[in-house]
Amino acid sequence: MKYAWPWELSRSGVLNMNRRNISYIGRYNQRKFYKRVDDKLITKQLALANGIAVPDLIGVVHQQHKIQEIPTMVLDRTGFVIKPAKGSGGKGIMVITRVSNGCYYKPNGHEVTHSEIYRHVSNILSGLFSLGGKPDVAIVEGLIEFDPVFEGLSYEGVPDIRLIVFKGFPVMGMLRLSTAASDGKANLHQGAVGVGLDIATGNSLHAVQFDLPVDKHPDTHFPLSNIVVPHWETLLHTASSAYEMCELGYLGTDMVLDKNKGPLLLELNARPGLTIQIANGRGILPRLKHVEAMKSSTMSVEERVAYAKKHFCSNPIF
Amino acid sequence: MHSRKPFYIFVALLFIIGISTSIYRGIEHNVPFLPGEQVQSWAVDAKISFNGTNQPAEVNFSLPNDPAFDILVENASSPGYGLTISAEAKNRRAVWSIREASGSQALYYRVTLVPTGKLNIETDEVPVAPEAYLWPATEKSAAEQITEEVWVRSATNLSFAQQLMNLINDNDQSQNMALLLSANTPTNLFVHMLHSKGVPARIVNGLQLEDQRRRQQLTSYVQVYNDGEWELFDVPNNKKGRDNTLVLWEYTGNSVLDVMGGTNSLVNFSMLQDTRSALATSIDMMMNDDAWDFSLYQLPLEEQSTFKGILLIPIGVLVVVFLRVIVGIKTSGTFMPVLIALAFIQTTLLTGLIGFLLIVAFGLMIRSYLSTLNLLLISRISAVIIVVIFIIGLFTLISFKLGLSEGLTITFFPMIILAWTIERMSILWEEEGPKKVFVSGGGSLFVATLAYLAMDNQLVQHWVFNFLGVHLVILALVLVMGQYTGYRLTELKRFKPLVGEQ
């Protein structure tokens, strides 16, 4: 049968969209703190103020006529990323991995002309990618040189680590690997592979693409069963401390591992998706309820990480 | 977390108020629950004729006031006469007057009656016991003998009256009865006999309605008081009770027609049956009641038709909320499908779908050219809007030339919405490829089609406009769905891999 019965899902502790919106986002995320995560520029500033490492900022384009300055900004860079400050769902992110002789190239080797960049940034400024079409600014960021431990795991893109942080406790995590289908982006609904991670160890548990289990990367054919994410402790720690930083109870943190700088906080998400459950092969609800049932909330970041590692670990499925 | 109780009480209240006001409207104002319902109405003409005697004349005519019929329209025509209608609660009368009436005179009164089905005539006041009729000496003993006999055999006023009537109409008449009937009409005899036993009874004048009858006269009936109600007896026909083709023209004991200063006065009735829309009838009735009533019927027709459209939006919104929250279908733009569905109502479904697809397809082609021009977003969308207008104009012209009148309705599409749709789809195409465009556009059109089917439904259109309480019910449903934390139908499939792995 292709469909599950609602009570079967409920027994498996699967969180659904309506319940996420009403019982978690609506209840634990105060509206006034949203701009801390919805505006990536503010997130960046907050992170820097809290001692959390982020990709370096090359420049910000606020106005149309400043678009011409982009080539000067990126002059000595090997690559860069242009993204809208208020974009959502990975929309409007342009990644340039190679700059040579004034020509720009995407991860897949396609050339990007100056006028394409101009139009893209112009679209960003007009608010095409921002929620509700509000005018936006474009952020130019340094390219992340991803950690070679993920060599062969990702196709044309940087793998990122998504952790769901509930009231400061990292409750579930996954590694997102871009594929040819996802066009170098790490968004699962665009076809990236999601690998569920054990909160205690950072070991892979289970992997999916388009909500279906996979055991090898579809493009690189790299086996996905024995991945160990390095710097796991730091990742948990960074994610957990993001709670103090943005004060959102139900939070998705996206991090990447840089070859030189270690874990970098890429962005925060006040409305993290639900596919992480499929990637982990289990529902997130029991963990959320576990945290909700805890009375004291005066634990430090270290205590929370330790608690999460103890209580939210899982036995590998394969 | 604050208590949910007030919320549920509020929703329940909305629900109850919505349902009960709708039922009230249906029952109290006779607004039909189904569209296209017909009711019968009767046009009754009363012609009063008399001969003038070259002196001042005053004609006092009783007007119908029967709870079994509502008066839709009434008017009187009487050239040269002064007319006053006295509207006493129980005794409505028209009074015509003139200084000098000579020769034969004709006055007309016309009324349109709508049956209400309330056939009982109830009264709060107990009528005073009638004075016993003084029988002429020749009839006295016969009458007393019969009444005494029947009185002993009866239990109530009603059974007494019933048995008296049976006896009067008995084929095997006793000598006593034959004697009485030779001197009295059956109706009079019946009333006299009732009065002699102190039973309140009165002679009333009724008009038997029959389609296309002319020159009808009022007939006498007898009402007998019993337990707060006046029961009707048709003595000559030995019938008790009444049906909805009998109008009690006058039943308060007053005369039907008084003419002063005239001779040979006569009233004739002619009538015509008519079928008309139940809705139009009840609206006319509501308009007749001057009482302030919160309804849209008081608006000018143009505003009414605007509201007929606007009031459909809650239905479309309800469909979208249901499909998104309970089913989980994704649409591009939250309420864009409702606006498209509104356009479909004007264009009809098939023409609308074809027109929409044609415009969007052409728009996408032109938009792909615009995207190479590196325009600012605002001017690009403005350009798309203008191009969409060109496309609509072109299609309208072509379909006109080809004689396809359906194509002309394409102008009903909201152009700004179309331009935004084209822009979004074009971006989607560039970012995620054509497949996503078809999925998201198809989802929107599917939702729009369902919303259209719901909004185009005759019954739905009838209800949302005539029973405004329905909107409170929709509001309650939307609020309840806003609280739904269960699984969406599409999630049952999406999360299927998570079942049974624990």
Automatic annotation (TrEMBL), chain A:
BP GO annotations: SOS response
SUPFAM superfamilies registered for this protein in UniProt: Glutathione synthetase ATP-binding domain-like (SSF56059)
Domain ATP-grasp per the UniProt entry, residue ranges: 44-295
Superkingdom to which the source organism belongs: Bacteria
Gene3D superfamilies, per the entry: ATP-grasp fold, B domain
UniProt KW Hydrolase keyword: no
One GO cellular component, as annotated: cytoplasm
Alphabetically ordered keywords of this record: ATP-binding, Ligase, Manganese, Nucleotide-binding
InterPro entries (alphabetical): ATP-grasp (IPR011761), RimK-rel_E_lig (IPR011758), RimK-rel_E_lig_ATP-grasp (IPR039523)
GO molecular function: ATP binding; metal ion binding; ribosomal S6-glutamic acid ligase activity
UniProt entry tagged with the keyword ATP-binding: yes
Coiled coil feature spans: none
PROSITE patterns the UniProt entry points to: ATP_GRASP
PANTHER family linked: BETA-CITRYLGLUTAMATE SYNTHASE B-RELATED (PTHR21621:SF0), RIBOSOMAL PROTEIN S6 MODIFICATION PROTEIN (PTHR21621)
Protein name according to UniProt: Alpha-L-glutamate ligase-like protein
Automatic annotation (TrEMBL), chain B:
Source superkingdom: Bacteria
7 transmembrane helices usually fused to an inactive transglutaminase domain: residues covered: 255-498
Keyword Transmembrane applies: yes
Classification via Pfam families: 7TM_transglut (PF14402), Transglut_i_TM (PF14400)
Coiled coil: none
Keywords: Membrane, Transmembrane, Transmembrane helix
Inactive transglutaminase fused to 7 transmembrane helices domain ranges (all copies): 24-183
The keyword Transmembrane helix is annotated on this UniProt entry: yes
Gene3D superfamilies, sorted: 3.10.620.30
Chain segments annotated as transmembrane: 6-24, 309-329, 335-365, 377-398, 404-425, 437-455, 467-487
Protein name: Gonadoliberin III
Organism, as annotated: Shewanella livingstonensis
